[in-house]
Design a protein that fits this description.
binds zinc ion; about 1050 residues; alpha/beta; about 15% strand; eight-stranded mixed β-sheet
């Protein structure tokens, strides 16, 4: 498999053209547009639709008298069991409690045993590789020891000072910063602590419990508030992935060309950084010939950092615990870890996850390390059943209380002063009057007496009921509508797809989502069929038979009927049944093979306009729209462009009518979901353009056959229809002074530089927001962000969903590296690379990814790691598996640049990535490979996954691999017949013929368990997955192998080991 010829691109050592468009972390991109600065004149939240907003605060003066003090109760809908979160507030107790259990124990936990690879590595025979100049043993006096590293205190950031005390592996300064500032500034009263009056000592536990911004003085015993897993960072600590053995990771490359030298710490990175990089011919590190010599002296693959191990370790360390969000800058457990979130003042990591939880204080530091500063926001993330749904707060006629200047919403970061009559905004520092009705006295701590009764004062996430000011035309919105638009051209009729859809809709419509407590869904439904013309159906409940109206003039699309097109399903059930029964027959004899597409979407938008509602279009289409109509497409696929500078054009959507249509859809709150059933090229880059700007999803079933793919498609459709979702949404990310959101990656539309518009946003869609400094950040006050999402519920209520998060800021880069979140970093890089590939050659994009990887790690090595031989590769503990993911990213279909992959598949995956959350990108880039042949069938425990490498497969084994989109059951050649018998009811592997896409339901423990694991995964993931069964050495195994991401890529791309060696060499060059 790995012999696959990969066409070597010019070496990495080339100058990097086209760097301009790509904003790698801190690249020298095109000049940034000037963003509205915070603290400027007030701006309405929802700028675009005129009249949609006005400052509710302005009317505050004329407020009705304050309601009774228990106002919280009448106005707050409790969406779930009332947590013990709002007990009568003896200030300390409420929050004091949880703190003690999980965190004390965690924090005081000794760091996991250092991942000293030294021993293993030293046994490797690496003699082959020419010892580089740096191959001195790890003594303090080695060349590296002279490298500056962060031993000491803040001021000299990045400036090497005191030579490292030879044996000071435990750099205490790295541990202490979280605490030290606190001691010196008692009050600092930043955001979360907003309740204290200046001058008060924030002594004692109560404060600490209150979402103290600082990992403050432990209420009990030292170390109680250490950042989770801080110790883990210590050098030569765990994860330091040391390969000290003499020359352990010596690069084979002759070390020839003069190293370019580590760019001065000044911020000249982002693209410019690397000079020549010798010895890496081939588009990818590790491409054949890249690493000289006989393939590695078989390094022990177990010696390099393992994702499965990292996941398992985190699960052991933090799994099953309650994660309280009361500490600023606290790094949450991994996305893969099973934990319970208790909101205590910061948004759950399910809603917001950051690339690092400690921002560098200055732009210079940020440039120096090149670690992107970003937050991945999943505003509608599903919460597990044991976590409380968001509370809904009603501030009455005036609407939610907001800062007069920056318009931030009332939140835990507002500090009440002046006896409770005024409050200072944590974002812009503006002092605001408290509206009369909202007045409340402060307790001796300076905290409002109703602190625990108001979610907006004490929680990280909550919702406000939005007033008419937040509604289009000052009118309450109508409930959204779903329109099902079925392509009834020849292919779809013949394949049986149309009948399949119509049959399914009958049951599906019974289960439309409804607001909790509602008997039936408020969502209206409508039906359209189309080929070259469109057919609208009147399904008014009063009719005995549905009526069809045909619109053949697709150039000027209109909706021929208003009354009876969008109906309540329950009312019109009989007519709709009738219609769904008739549709397959009506077109049974069709010869029409051409379709239109843009007019179909246009019709949906017009229908929503007429009905004054938002909603979603479900479009089922099997071919490229070639009929004469707006948006007609022609085949522009051209494999010759792959690996050229023009490759990007394959992924750029056709402009013109599609672009305009996206805007119209967003303006109307019309989300488009596309279900595609292609048998050939469809120009997905263009067809999926509207969905990808409207918060929609695109599903694709190549060469669809009802028998084989039907169930897979139906599962997707059901999931999609039932997803929790908000419509006609607009989001704004506000930040405290010193930094701001500058880039947004997601299935969204931006009319201006700050308002993120989404026709809809569902529970699986995430938006990645990048931040840049525009001033110096303060270690004391930290960095605050607030995401406010205005949207319409499926019930037609206008709401504001607010997520708040506070991060630490530090002058110590070591703090940043310690607080990194690799899964979030990967999400950022995946999205930024997928966007960048629209504007520049893939080769440049990949180069930037590699360079930035090396740079981030080199900066750590230089500034934060303890001295060691250059031959050691030392990775920050929080980023030790970062290289595996980066390497895998470059091997994904969109990034790999192979003519063997279909352009549509690549375009599709590119668009998928743009909307993904942290968990999804993580799993996509590192599939889960689970051995099923030797599991204990007597328990429910799912076996631990193994590393994604061929070496982990065994001839007698059975493995399940899935990445959220594809799923394979791999069967080894020598698999015992009784296993095959148990799973397939066949005597042996040889009897397994044809296309099996589901396991037979056999009543034996193994079959039950295997099917239960598979079904569990299908259930759990956002997309349903089709099960592919592959036998070792069969041809389809090739498809499976490309998911073994630690191995050399099937279509190009290095093995993990080779990549790590390459990156290591890059790092060394940067350090010399
Ligand atoms: Zn403000």
């Amino acid at each position: 498999m790995s012999q696959q010829s990969y066409v070597a691109a010019p070496p990495y050592s080339q100058a990097q053209p086209g760097m301009g468009g790509y904003q790698g972390g801190f690249g020298a991109g095109p000049p940034q547009p000037l963003y509205g600065h915070y603290g400027g004149p007030p701006q309405a939240f929802a700028a675009p639709p005129a009249g949609m907003t006005k400052s509710p605060v302005s009317s505050a003066a004329g407020m009705p008298p304050p309601p009774a003090s228990n106002q919280y109760n009448p106005n707050v809908q409790q969406n779930g069991a009332h947590p013990q979160r709002y007990p009568a507030p003896p200030a300390a107790s409420a929050y004091g409690q949880p703190l003690q259990s999980p965190y004390n124990s965690m924090a005081s936990m000794a760091p996991p045993p250092a991942q000293q690879l030294t021993n293993q590595m030293s046994s490797m025979n690496l003699g082959n590789y020419a010892p580089g100049p740096m191959q001195s043993p790890p003594t303090p006096t080695s060349s590296v020891a002279q490298q500056p590293f962060q031993t000491s205190l803040p001021p000299g950031m990045g400036q090497p000072q005191m030579p490292p005390g030879p044996q000071s592996p435990h750099m205490s300064p790295q541990m202490s910063p979280p605490q030290s500032p606190l001691a010196s500034m008692p009050m600092a009263g930043p955001p979360m602590a907003g309740q204290q009056m200046a001058g008060q000592q924030m002594a004692g536990p109560p404060m600490a419990g209150m979402g103290r911004p600082f990992p403050g003085p432990p209420p009990s015993g030292p170390g109680a508030f250490q950042q989770p897993g801080p110790g883990a960072f210590q050098q030569p600590g765990p994860g330091a992935f040391q390969q000290p053995g003499p020359g352990a990771f010596q690069q084979p490359g002759p070390g020839a060309a003069g190293p370019p030298g580590y760019p001065q710490q000044a911020g000249q990175f982002g693209g410019l950084m690397t000079g020549p990089q010798p010895g890496m011919p081939g588009g990818f590190p590790g491409a054949p010939g890249g690493l000289a010599g006989p393939p590695q002296k078989k390094l022990d693959p177990d010696s390099i950092p393992s994702i499965t191990q990292v996941i398992e370790d985190d699960q052991v360390k933090r799994g099953g615990q309650v994660y309280s969000t009361n500490i600023r800058g606290q790094v949450p457990p991994l996305v893969t870890t099973d934990f319970t979130v208790q909101d205590q003042g910061n948004a759950s990591p399910r809603f917001m996850r950051c690339t690092t939880y400690s921002l560098p204080c200055t732009a210079d530091l940020a440039k120096q390390c090149q670690v992107p500063l970003a937050c991945i926001v999943k505003p509608f993330a599903n919460l597990p059943k044991n976590e409380t749904p968001l509370y809904v707060v009603n501030h009455g006629e005036t609407g939610p209380i907001r800062c007069n200047r920056c318009k931030a919403y009332m939140c835990p970061y507002m500090q009440f002063i002046d006896g409770g009559r005024r409050y200072q905004c944590g974002f812009c520092n503006c002092v605001n009057e408290v509206p009369v009705f909202y007045f409340q006295h402060l307790d001796h701590m300076g905290r409002r007496v109703d602190f625990y009764e108001r979610p907006e004062l004490s929680l990280g996430s909550y919702e406000f009921v939005a007033t008419l000011d937040y509604c289009k035309n000052n009118k309450p919105p109508n409930p959204p509508a779903y329109i099902f638009m079925i392509d009834v051209s020849y292919n779809n009729i013949k394949s049986g797809l149309v009948k399949l859809i119509c049959d399914e809709l009958k049951t599906l419509l019974e289960n439309l989502p409804s607001e909790e407590g509602m008997e039936c869904s408020a969502i209206k439904v409508g039906f359209v069929t189309y080929n070259k013309v469109l057919h609208f159906y009147n399904v008014k409940s009063a009719l005995a038979q549905p009526q069809m109206m045909v619109v053949s003039d697709t150039a000027e699309m209109f909706v021929p009927l208003l009354d009876g097109f969008l109906v309540n399903y329950q009312d019109s059930r009989a007519v709709i049944y009738n219609l769904l029964d008739q549709i397959p027959d009506m077109f049974a004899d069709t010869n029409e093979s051409e379709t239109v597409f843009v007019p179909v979407i246009q019709a949906g938008v017009e229908a929503f306009k007429a009905a004054e509602c938002s909603g979603k279009l479900f479009i089922f289409q099997s071919s490229m729209p070639t009929a004469e109509a707006p948006g007609k497409l022609k085949n522009r696929d051209d494999k010759k462009l792959v690996n050229t500078d023009k490759e990007k054009t394959l992924f750029q959507p056709q402009k013109g009518v599609y672009e305009q249509l996206s805007k119209e859809c967003v303006a109307q709150g019309c989300c488009v979901d596309l279900f595609l059933f292609p048998s050939q090229y469809m120009d997905i880059a263009t067809m999926a353009d509207v969905p990808s700007h409207t918060g929609g999803s695109v599903y694709k079933y190549n060469n669809f056959q009802v028998e084989i793919d039907g169930e897979h498609f139906l599962r997707d459709l059901r999931k999609d229809v039932q997803k929790s979702i908000g419509f006609d949404a607009i989001m704004r990310v506000r930040t405290s002074t010193g930094f701001r959101a500058t880039e947004f990656f997601g299935a969204v539309h931006m009319n201006n530089t700050t308002d993120i518009e989404m026709a809809a946003v569902d529970c699986d869609k995430a938006l990645t927001v990048e931040f840049k400094h525009d001033d110096t950040l303060s270690e004391e006050t930290g960095a605050l962000m607030q995401c406010a999402l205005l949207y319409t519920t499926i019930n037609g209520q206008r709401r504001l969903r607010v997520h708040n998060l506070s991060l630490n800021c530090s002058l110590q880069l070591s703090e940043l590296y310690k607080s990194c979140e690799t899964d979030s970093l990967i999400n950022f890089f995946a999205k930024s690379a997928c966007r960048a590939m629209l504007n520049q050659p893939l080769k440049s994009v990949r180069e930037i990814l590699v360079n930035q990887t090396a740079h981030m790690l080199a900066c750590y090595r230089k500034n934060c790691a303890s001295p060691s031989a250059a031959s050691q590769l030392i990775l920050p503990d929080a980023m030790k598996v970062f290289p595996v993911y980066m390497n895998s990213l470059m091997k994904t279909a969109p990034m790999v640049g192979s003519t063997e992959l279909s352009t549509d598949d690549r375009a599709h995956q590119r668009l998928l990535i743009m909307g993904m959350g942290v968990e999804d990108t993580r799993l996509l880039l590192y599939p889960r490979l689970t051995p099923l042949h030797n599991m204990d069938v007597s328990t429910e425990t799912v076996p631990a996954p193994v590393r994604c490498s061929e070496e982990r497969l065994t001839d007698a084994g059975m493995f399940l691999l899935e990445n959220g989109h594809s799923m394979f059951l791999w069967l080894g050649q020598a698999i015992p017949p009784d296993l095959i018998q148990s799973i397939f009811n066949l005597p042996s592997l040889a009897h397994l013929q044809g296309h099996v896409c589901a396991l037979p339901e056999l009543d034996n423990p193994l079959s039950n368990k295997v099917r239960s694991i598979i079904n569990g995964l299908i259930e759990e993931r956002p997309n349903s997955m089709k099960l592919h069964i592959v036998r070792q050495k069969d041809k389809p195994e090739m498809v499976f192998r490309q998911f073994l991401v630690e191995d050399k890529g099937l279509h190009g791309g290095a093995s993990y080991m080779d990549f790590l060696c390459y990156v290591h060499r890059e790092i060394r060059q940067l350090l010399t």
